[in-house]
Each structure stands twice: as C-alpha cells, then as structure tokens.
From TrEMBL:
Record-linked PANTHER family: CHOLINE DEHYDROGENASE, MITOCHONDRIAL, GLUCOSE-METHANOL-CHOLINE GMC OXIDOREDUCTASE
Cleaved signal peptide residues: none
Keywords, comma-separated and alphabetical: FAD, Flavoprotein
InterPro entries from the UniProt entry: FAD/NAD-bd_sf (IPR036188), GMC_OxRdtase (IPR012132), GMC_OxRdtase_N (IPR000172), GMC_OxRtase_C (IPR007867)
Top-level taxon in the UniProt lineage: Bacteria
Domain Glucose-methanol-choline oxidoreductase C-terminal: from-to ranges: 372-501
Pfam entry (one): GMC_oxred_N
Protein name: GMC family oxidoreductase N-terminal domain-containing protein
Location of the region described as Disordered in the Swiss-Prot/TrEMBL record: 55-91, 130-150, 177-199
Length: 521
C-alpha cells in the first residue's frame, strides 16, 4: 500500500468540526493526518451566499426561493439537514451556559460550559492571531459581523418598536436582535488547511482528499483500522495507525457507522449488514429545528436591490462596501438574527427570526423554535452508498412543538405587520390563506425549512459515544461534531460543532509519540 494511504489519523469530513480537529492534530508535526471530504473546491460556497433567483417565480416555488436564500436544502417531505452548516449555522453564536449544563446533567461528564468557553476562546485567539496573555473571552470576536444595509436597518427599527433591542452579541436570556458574527468559510474543501478566518500555512503533515466519499469503516474485530472510500477513479482504502474520527455530520455519521456494522442489530439485519459492534443508540435522537419562511416583496424599495431606500442610505451602503477590508469575504446579503418570545407572557426567548434581504429586492424572514422537543431517527436501508436513508424526522411530533410553532408563526406575522417595515414590504408567501393553526402546521410540515441537525451519535448515558468521544463497543473510533450533541443549543450548531472538534483535538493531538515524520512521499 502507498505510504500516502497509511496515516496516523483519518478524519472523515472537512467541515467546521473536521477543520478544527485537523488543525489541532496538525500542530504536532509527528501526527500524520488525512482528511476525507466528499465535496470539492467548487462546492464550498458559503451557505449565506446562495442568492435567490432574480426572475419572477411561480407561487409553489416561492418557499424554495426562500430556502435557497437562507442556504437551506428544501425537501418537501423529509426536511433533512445535512452535515454542513445550514441557514444560521454560519452565524457564530455560542449558545447559553444552561445548554451545556443540561448535557453534563444528562450524563455527559466534563462537557460543560467551562470546557466550551475555553475552546471558543482558544479558537478566537487563533483566528485573530492573538499571541499575548490576554483575550476578552466574554464575547465572540466581531471580526466577521456583516455590514448593515438600509433594508436591514428598517427591520431593526420595526423590532425596536416591538420592544426588541439591538445588541452587539446574542448572549443572555432576553429578547434581542443583532448583526451576529458570522464565520467565513471554515473548511478544508479547498485542499489547504485554513480552518480559521486568516488561514494558516499549508502543513506538510495534513493531507486533504476531496471528492472522496467514505463508504465504510474497516475493522479488525472491533478495532477501527481504516476507511474504504469511493473517488471518481474508483474505490480506495486508507489505513489509520492510530484512530479514525468521524466528522461527517448528524446524518452522515450514523449512516457510515451502520454501513460499517456498528449500530442496532435489528436495523443492521434488516439492511443486510453484518454486525461488528452493537450500539443501539446509533441514528436515534435526531433533533432539528423545523420552521418556515415568509417571502416579502419590496413596496418602497427599488427593484434592483435592497440598499437604497433613500439616497442617503444608498450612499452610506456604497461607502461601507467600498471601505470593506479586502481580506474579509463579502456577502450579497446581510443576515440579522433575533431571539424573542413567541408569547409576550413567555418566561424567556423561545423562538428565533432570521432576516435576509434578497439581492434582487425583497427579503425572507424565517422563524424557528429554539429548543424543539421532537425527536426523529435516521438509519440505512441497505449496505450500499446508493441505498437511500430511512428517515423519520419527527417534526412537530410533540404538543409543545406544535403549540410553539403556531405561536411563532403568529408572532412573526404580527411583527411583519408592524411599522415602518409594513410600509416597505408586502408578504407574498405563504399568504393570507395560511392563518388558522391547522393550516400553519400543514405549511410548516410540507413547505417548511429544517435547520441544524444534531444528536444521532450523542454523548451521555446510553449514548453512542462515551465522554472521550469513543464509539461504544469499538476501539480507535471516535465521533467529533454536532452529532454528539445530546440536544440543540440555543445558539447555532456551527460554533459548538467547531468547539467539539477543537476539544477532540486536545484529547488526541499529542498522542502520537513515534519519531518525527519527514514529509509525504
């Protein structure tokens, strides 16, 4: 076997978590690291850069337009979010301390706020190039906050009249709105190790294979020894001398485990896969936010774009674009995230609003419950990559989620009817016909959007992985991304997923004690 196919660590997936993990492992020059990534450099568009179609579209396609604008994959039946960052998954919001405390209380020992706070701080120091002894770790870096535009400011003024204040960052447990910090592309799909905004020199000990899809994990008994993958040139096998780490997302990870013989014995038998290690929790506990988007057309905004509501506002927006730093990636749109109460008498924020202007004119406003209680499953239906997954998303399967969804829909429409926004925009989809609870739930189920899947390889008692992220029932196999999160955080999943990868790197990065390696041959 070629020496390029024998490494110390194989990371399956080069997204947020995989990039952070590769960076940490690569800091030790003795570690020889391979990242397997199914996508290619032409598929790494930032989710928030997906602009809506400029031409008029049919009513049935309007929700798809909203989905594309939000960077979401629209599926009319399953609403499945994949392993990459989706929708506000590109918005770097850490979540609250209580989110992580819940995980530890449920049996994920050591996975608490203090540990994540340390990872967030370390990542932000790296991204900012901080080398001194001090960094303000009380809040995320605002380096990549989107620049404001006139339509967005109109939205913020409307929220202010509803008692929702603008803040610089989204921490805390009160209603608020912000231009949140957003991560620039943080993946390895370009073939270089650039996991943070400013990038890093290429490391000789980290290699990235693009257009390389993991088909199954190779085992010697219950010990992971490598990965079999599919490339445009055919099948290939890679050997891991130390460990295999899965960072393929809350959908990709359980499917890969099950195709490899790790999972519930009944599921594997039905799919025709030989059992390697029993782990009945694999593919369960699928948690996602299920919401829906309103599409709005401009009323007082010129058709060619969202910026120039007034000549002065247009000039200001032009200056902001002209003065933007050249080393910070630009966006066609500005996103605004608000957290608020669906019911004015609620004890705390229980929903999110994601506002995104459409470059062609207009905007989309998507709403999501913050902490849904519905749980689904995802499993294989057969042993091959081509076999479709058996997905039971479980959207709106609890009374709590159904009640919250109806209330969030009504609250969103109430805000859209407020001034000054109502004088500038008109709702075009879903339209006034969707109003009563039954119609709202049908709309969200059939035409909604799904955000941020987690939990299918969860930490905790009886979970898929132990406190060191090791897959129970196996050896030298770990999972390190959003799929290990027992529940959703009240922030986005990208920041937390990247932190999981960083923490996994802390566990693994100095484990290789063999002699210093001289480079790829």
């Amino acid at each position: 076997m070629s020496s390029k196919k024998i490494v110390d660590y194989i990371i399956v997936g080069g997204g947020a978590a995989g990039s952070a993990l590769a960076h940490r492992l690569g800091e030790n020059p003795q570690n020889r690291v391979l990242v397997i990534e199914a996508a290619g450099p032409d598929e790494r568009r930032h989710p928030m850069l997906s602009g809506a179609a400029q031409a008029p579209i049919a009513p049935k396609a309007r929700n798809r337009q909203a989905s594309r604008t939000l960077g979401m994959s629209h599926r009319s039946t399953d609403g499945l979010a994949g392993g990459r960052a989706e929708a506000s998954g590109t918005i770097r919001s850490r979540g609250g301390e209580a989110d992580y405390a819940t995980w530890e209380a449920a049996g994920a020992t050591g996975w608490n706020w203090a540990r994540f706070q340390g990872a967030f701080t370390a990542m932000e120091r790296q991204a900012a190039g901080v080398t001194g002894p001090h960094v303000d770790d009380s809040r995320p870096s605002a380096e990549a906050v989107s620049p404001p535009d006139a339509t967005s400011e109109l939205w913020i003024r409307t929220l202010a009249r509803q008692g929702i204040d603008t803040v610089e960052e989204l921490g805390g447990e009160r209603t608020r709105v912000a231009y949140p910090p957003q991560s620039v592309p943080t993946d390895l799909r370009t073939g270089t190790v650039r996991p943070f905004p400013h990038g890093y020199p290429r490391r000789r000990n980290v290699r990235v294979r693009l257009h390389c899809t993991a088909r199954r994990i190779l085992f010697d008994g219950t010990t992971a020894i490598g990965v079999e993958a599919v490339t445009p040139r055919g099948a290939v096998r890679f050997t891991a001398r130390r460990e295999v780490i899965l960072c393929a997302g809350a959908v990709g990870n359980p499917l890969l485990l099950e195709r490899s013989g790790v999972g519930d014995s009944e599921v594997l038998t039905t799919a025709g896969v030989h059992l390697v290690a029993a782990n009945p929790a694999v593919g369960g506990n699928l948690r996602q936010r299920r919401g829906a988007a309103f599409t709005l057309r401009p009323h007082g905004v010129p058709e060619h774009g969202p910026d120039p509501v007034t000549p002065a506002a247009g000039l200001g927006a032009w200056l902001r674009r002209a003065l933007r730093r050249p080393d910070v990636p630009t966006r066609e749109t500005t996103s605004i995230l608000a957290v608020l109460n669906s019911d004015r008498e609620a004890s705390g924020p229980d929903m999110e609003l994601l506002f995104t202007p459409i470059p062609a004119g207009g905007a989309t406003v998507a709403f999501f419950p913050r902490s849904p209680t519905s749980v689904g499953t995802v499993h294989i239906s057969g042993p091959a990559l081509k076999d479709p997954p058996r997905l039971v998303p479980g959207h709106l399967s609890t009374d709590q989620d159904r009640e919250l969804t109806v209330a969030a829909f009504a609250r969103t429409r109430e805000i859209l009817a407020g001034e000054p926004f109502a004088s500038a925009m008109t709702e075009t989809f879903p339209g006034a016909d969707v109003a009563d609870p039954a119609d709202v739930l049908r709309y969200v189920r059939e035409d909604g959007v799904t955000e941020q899947a987690v939990g299918t390889c969860a930490l905790g008692l009886g979970g898929v992985v132990d406190d060191e992220l090791r897959v129970r029932g196996t050896h030298r196999l770990r999972v390190a991304d959003a799929s290990v999160m027992p529940t959703l955080t009240t922030g986005d999943t990208e920041a937390a997923s990247m932190a999981v990868g960083w923490i996994a790197g802390d566990v693994l990065r100095n484990a290789n004690t063999r002699s210093r390696w001289s480079g790829w041959t």
